[in-house]
Structure formats: structure tokens, C-alpha cells
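Narrative progress, year one. The postdoctoral researcher (J.K.) led the effort to move from monomer predictions toward full complexes, under supervision of the PI. The following entry was the first complex the group processed end to end, covering 221 residues in total.
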Amino acid sequence: MSAGAGEDRTTIEVEVLAFAALGERLGGRRRRVTLPTGARAGDLWPALGLGPSAPAAVRYALDVDWIAPDHVLRDGDTIAVITPVSGG
Amino acid sequence: MIALSREPLDTDAPLRAVEDPEHGGVVVFIGATRAEAARRTVAALEYDAHEALALAEMARIADDLHARYGARVAMLHRLGRVEPGQPSVVVAAGAAHRAEAFAACRDGIDRLKASVPIWKCTHFADGGREWDQ
């Protein structure tokens, strides 16, 4: 990915939200993660030390909107990592 | 009405929210916690959620059901610890005719269970606990 005019950052920082079993596995519901500029939502799983790639059923949300795993993240984004749900 | 509650659910509230003189049919689904899971006795269920996203997703489902069936749909889900036999979720759908009301209510609870970011942890009477996922 090319950086925008005037941008020379090589990394971005995003806030990750995790809930239920995943939150317990990560030791908390919020975690700051530093990623290379151009990183995508799907890169969060390995960045969190959870394994090489997320199970296919894992979804991502930017604030309250769903985003695809190939969505390019921006510095300061808050991204929820949503494992298969079990409400009802 | 789209809501999450840490208090025992007022199961009539979603029904009141969809009442309308134009609605010839109203269907209410109430989901309750079961006393047994995986052949083990359940002491309680505990619900966790991404609250902002859950509310937004429930609102999107309700909007979609309105567009599809002309139904007004209300959803109310419990959070926190719930004892067996207590209601954990209520979906109410009101529409001009019963076919649309039944369909919207059924789709509403099915879609809530499939995509709304709420998770259930079962606390067993023998002491263990397990997240369903």
C-alpha cells in the first residue's frame, strides 16, 4: 500500500476489542496493537498471537460496522474481533 | 424497541412496542435459559456482548424485516447472569397479517442468534464453566 501525501509512518496503532472467550484468552477486552502501515483486519489474529490466521467464521467490525478481513486498517481505528456468536 | 438489559426482562415491553391499530397480527418469541446443557445441570447462564455493535446489528435486522415484511420488530436481550427458567431474549413482530408477523418474528430470532455479537457462558452446577461458540 502506498502512503498518502505527507505520510511517512511505517506503522499504525489500532485498538482491538475482544469479548467472551476471546477476551479471556487475551487477558482483557481492550488491547492496543501496532501493525505495519497497510495491514488488514485479517492481520490482527496473528498480531494478537492467536495463530497464523483466523478461523473463517471470525468477523471484524470497525466501530459498529462490519468490515471484510481484507479491509485496510488506519491508525487510531477501533476494531472488534468477533468470534462465532451464541446469544439467544 | 431495541435494547439490552442487565435486569430481569420485562417480556411485555417488546409487545407494547409493536402494538399498532394497523397490525392484525402480533407474534412474540421468548427464549429462556434451560436447566440442562450437554447432559449437565446448569446453575446459570452468563451473557457477554459487544453492546454498541449488538444494538446496531439488532436495529439493522429490524429495519431489514420492516423492508421485507412490513413488520415492526422489537428485540430485547438479557446480559449478565441469568438463572435457569428466566427469559434471556424476547422478539416481538407486528404486521398487517399473521403470516408476515410469524415470518418476521422467526427470521428475527434466527438472525439475532446468527449474527448479533452476544455470547453465552454456561455455568454448570458441578462447578465448571464453558463459553458456547
